[in-house]
Design goal:
17 strands; globular; 7-stranded mixed sheet
Length: 432
């Protein structure tokens, strides 16, 4: 993952212990403590091997859609897209997996040796020294560090019958063979890291996309902490930064609209930013060549009984523009998560002096809220497109997921278009 300092790119490395909810200086007092930390690091290595296979070998980007509990899923989507650009050769990741399996062997040896020693060791020892002593301390890079937390909070998330997402601690217990207390500690550790990391990334990307200094200064002031002490920023303003990154790095935006009042179940469209036209344009041809490329996926619902055909919906969506539709959704969305920040959810500049100082930013938010209501991009008017989730996936991955849920009447805009056709291309319906 790139980091910028003095106009140079550099990498960050972490100790494997930093993936654990314990500190490297935590003292191991007995044999049981040793067995527990060995079990924890064994579980972490299992997850690392899995995520390397899923991300770098199989390209299953939907496996990295973590439940953090904030309103910043779109930040993680951009980060996954950036990481997809930084892949090494397949041989590199196969070798890394072999390295991790060798460390697993060392852990198994240490576990075996433990059974041959007394219940109480001769001296107390820190986790760091214990790992060094048994040759199981290893380094991971920042990409692996981020992906571990994202994978853990995706693999072990679940949904209630009411559609609420939560971390399934029982599932972590079963997989790790550790206590529920550990399960809660490691998931909280991952959530807090990703929340803080996401806010740091927004400031970094704001500079990268050359946002004005006063905008960046204000972003820093708008950083607050929610009920679980996670770092949070107002979603409208950080999404503005993300859109700038998407433009700069030419990431495709995949719109997935679930049509609730239509014979068509879903409509899919792909947009890319055009420097020449200074706007996002819908891809009208050769879409099949992009099926396995990762996209910034924006998934939502359309509730409108008046669309005559999918063509009418797509034409109106395209005329309004994907950027306005995304930003108006974000303006209508609560700006912060959690009960603690209820006062700031509709107005991040609730204090009068800050409201006056940031009149332009406030006006932009209010104008977009009005557009959300007019265009049908908010909770009380979902007639055009109401965003439900944002993540990273491929077009093929989304089609397969939609079909898994027994929806087969999917319309994908831009398939099999004849080159040189001046009018908007015909729609391709992808059936069973």
């Amino acid at each position: 993952m790139f980091k910028y300092k003095d106009n140079k790119i550099y990498n960050i490395e972490f100790s494997c212990i930093e993936l654990m909810p314990q500190s490297s200086t935590t003292v191991i007092k007995n044999k049981i403590d040793k067995e527990n930390v060995l079990q924890i690091i064994a579980f972490i290595i299992d997850e690392l091997i899995e995520l390397l296979e899923q991300f770098y070998i199989l390209g299953n980007y939907q496996c990295f859609d973590p439940h953090v509990g904030d309103t910043a899923c779109q930040i993680r989507a951009i980060e996954i897209l950036i990481l997809s650009l930084e892949k090494h050769s397949l041989f590199f990741y196969v070798n890394r997996i072999i390295e991790l399996k060798q460390i697993q062997s060392e852990i198994h040896k240490t576990v075996t040796n433990l059974s041959n020693i007394d219940q109480i060791p001769k001296k107390h020892i820190s986790i760091l020294d214990f790992f060094k002593e048994n040759n199981i301390l290893f380094i991971i890079n920042e990409n692996e560090f981020f992906l571990f937390h994202a994978y853990l909070l995706t693999k072990y998330k679940n949904e209630t019958n009411e559609g609420l997402t939560y971390i399934d601690h029982e599932k972590i217990c079963t997989s790790s063979e550790l206590s529920k207390k550990f399960s809660k500690k490691i998931s909280r550790h991952s959530q807090q890291y990703l929340a803080e990391h996401s806010c740091d990334k927004i400031i970094e990307w704001a500079k990268f996309s050359k946002k004005p200094p006063n905008f960046i200064d204000e972003l820093n002031k708008l950083l607050l902490h929610d009920d679980d002490d996670r770092c949070v920023l107002p979603c409208f303003y950080f999404t503005d930064v993300l859109v700038s990154v998407i433009k700069k790095l030419k990431f495709p935006i995949l719109i997935v609209s679930k049509q609730s009042n239509s014979t068509i179940s879903h409509i899919l469209m792909v947009f890319i930013y055009s420097e020449r036209k200074k706007k996002f344009i819908i891809i009208k041809e050769n879409l099949s060549s992009r099926f396995n490329s990762p996209c910034f996926v924006v998934e939502g619902i359309t509730q409108n009984i008046y669309w005559v055909s999918p063509y009418n919906f797509i034409e109106r969506f395209n005329n309004i523009g994907v950027e306005e539709i995304i930003m108006s959704n974000m303006a209508a969305h609560p700006q912060y998560s959690g009960e603690r920040l209820t006062l700031y959810k509709d107005n991040p500049f609730i204090k009068q002096d800050r409201l006056i100082q940031n009149n332009n930013m406030w006006t932009m938010l209010q104008n977009m809220k009005q557009l959300a209501l007019i265009n049908g991009c908010c909770k009380i008017n979902k007639s055009l497109f109401f965003i439900q989730h944002i993540f990273c996936d491929t077009i093929e991955g989304r089609i397969n997921k939609i079909r898994e849920n027994n929806y087969f009447d999917i319309v994908i805009f831009g398939l099999n278009n004849n080159e040189g056709e001046k009018r908007l291309p015909l729609l391709e319906s992808v059936g069973a």
